[in-house]
Design goal:
- By secondary structure, the protein is mainly α.
- The protein has 4 helices and no strands.
- Helix 2 packs antiparallel against helix 4.
């Protein structure tokens, strides 16, 4: 770690760090992002009006369902960056 990382407590994963991750960590990162990516793209396309928005499909109260899926995917990806 460099001095800036020690001051802030934030360690940004660098590309070379990918090599030292265990196989399950890599799988968790990829799985989490694969879960999250389609819903994020749908959200953006819905904002642009190119596809029906999530609110139109699920209703105002039903938007919690895709939001929960996105949060779960991001939590799974975060587990992959977990350092012992």
């Amino acid at each position: 770690m460099n001095d800036e990382q020690l001051k802030t407590g934030f360690v940004m994963p660098m590309p070379e760090d990918w090599k030292i991750l265990r196989m399950w960590q890599k799988a968790a990162i990829v799985a989490g992002l694969l879960i999250t990516a389609p819903l994020f793209v749908w959200f953006l396309l819905g904002l642009l009006g190119l596809v029906p928005s999530m609110v139109q499909v699920f209703g105002p109260d039903g938007v919690r369902t895709p939001a929960s899926i996105v949060v779960a995917g991001l939590l799974i990806a975060a587990l992959g960056f977990w350092d012992d």
